[in-house]
Design goal:
Elements: E1 2-4, H1 22-32, E2 40-42, H2 47-50, E3 80-81, H3 83-89, E4 94-96, H4 120-139, E5 147-152, H5 157-181, H6 186-189, H7 193-205, H8 218-229, E6 233-237, E7 257-262, E8 275-280, H9 287-293, E9 298-299, E10 308-311, H10 313-338, H11 343-346, E11 349-351, E12 368-374, E13 381-383, E14 386-388, H12 391-406, E15 421-426, H13 427-436, H14 448-456, E16 462-468, E17 476-477, E18 486-487, E19 489-491, E20 493-497, E21 505-509, H15 528-535, E22 552-561, H16 568-574, H17 580-594, E23 600-606, E24 617-623, H18 628-640
Helix pairs in contact: 3-10, 4-7, 4-8, 12-13, 13-14, 14-18
Amino acid sequence: MIDDEADNASINTNKKDEDPTKINNYIRKILTLFARNTYVGFTATPFANVFISYDTQDEMLADDLFPRHFIYSLESPSNYCGAQKYFFESNSNVRFINDYDDKVFPLRHKKEWDGDKLFPSFYHSINVFLLANAIRDIREVEKNTHRSMLINMSRFTDVQFVIKEIVENYFADMKRAIKQNCRCKKEDYMRNSLISALYESYELEYADNNWFGKTATWDQVFERLPEAIKDIEIAVVNSSRNSNKLDYSKHERDGLRVIAIGGLALSRGLTLEGLCVSYFYRNTATFDVLMQMGRWFGYRDDYGDMCKIYLTDFSYRYYREISQSIDQLKKDIRTMGAQGKRPEDYGIRVRNNSSEMGITAANKMRNTKAKIDRKSFYGSVFETPYLHRSLSAVSENIDHTSAFLRELTVAQKDDSVQHPYFRDISARRVFELLQVLNIHEANENFDTKQLCRFIAKHLEMKFDVLVMGGAAENTPIEGFEPVFTDTCVKRRFDIVNRDEYLDQQIIRMNGVRAHLWGPRDTANGLSEADRKRVESQTNVKAQDYMLEGRNALLIIYFIQPSNEGVDIDDYFTAENTMEEEVKSQVKLLLEMRQKNMKYLVGYGIGFPHKQGVSGDATNYIVNKTCNYYTKQHEEDYQTYGEI
């Protein structure tokens, strides 16, 4: 079975406990009818496909359509004009729409919009299309080549027809002006405002165009214009009854010249032949839809230098981010192939460093979660405000942490710091602790596998270790005498549900702020002079205290969970009237009492700034059931497990 546009209707967008969507259902049913079958999907935007759950099965339907056996990236021919060419190699084809005005045409407009004018750049782009037709007539021996312009400004069909009327009125006025002035002298016809605007468009876009050593002069272009534009059609392409149907095959002899106005209908499946000019003014919020709307990608032999794309600066940024995302995905796919691995063994990730855009529709991303990939941690600080609700996992962390602390000595302790503070601990010992800790993955920045990978490459570094203490009346930290004594830190907490994680209930510290440490915890260990130097700045953050030259810092928090008004004894007398939120908190405290657990444990870690090196991160979305990082870090641990 071959599935074209496989990321569109074939994806099951329903929730796990619901029946699959119809087309997904039918595809899987058909495949089960055969003892042997092969399903191959084709798409330019495979984001939704690689996010399908790897282990979704149904007794009647069998596996979902995750591409478990192979993903193959087709190489682009050298004459293909893609995102790399338009948005990285050269900006010569791209023009920014800098004159957009919400009072004229709001980016987020309603379907009732019925204005009668648009931005100056809009009319300029139409001028450019008219000029392109004349210049191509001058250049090309064959005059039957197709010529198209794309206008994509609205998803509403009614608004698209309003835009068509604006284009028709402008085109009629321009065609009339050209016809009336084409035999006049230049000094005479330049008095016409439309012709003058057309000349300005020529000077701006095509006056310097050099094609095999030849330039089409304004006089040549103006002479050709009446014939070049006389058969241009203006069409609305959408799903309505009144929509025009573009059929280039009916114009093989004379070539179709058309200004196509549309939205979703122009995004998939339809090729705009000979696309010269695109005017794109949309607020699309996902990678795949934006890429599908980029109909200017394709083959532009002999006229690529004439193609112009008009878009906003934010759309330009989006296309650059999407291009980098696709390039990274292709790189991963090539690496996977070179290693002889399948997607089910290699894992999937898709880069997204944009805070404004999603990768695909939310209902196609139910099986995903965010991941932050850091190659360097210098100048960065991280904490673990999220703890496992499973107290057995927390208890194991306490055991590992206690064993680590018992190896520290009085000689390493700095008594000048208020709380237990140990200097010059080897990176190897911190690495060994991080290797065995079970940190909840909701702490996206505190990724022990990535931290271990970084530390393993910098074993020469030293750590300071701080056991952050609390008020005198708090629960004592036990078992470390005579090296140190202190009390727990007290933190507010709640129990939250996060569907994207396998163990959905999480202990969260300090509410929606989700913070474990205090604002000056990382200042511990600094000299008074260094501390004052940092605090002389404005808006000081935890990482600002990680001055170049100081040791890396590991902070251990023994936590006494405590919420005002939450009392274990109330559970036995008022369970039925207790709010669910409070009840979940009381249950945690009750379970801790039953297990004789006096505190929880959390962590903070910081690395000093290093000149010329930053802790920049790349954000990825990963497939939860076929996680790139889970697969790759299995190999990392084999590499670093015995350092």
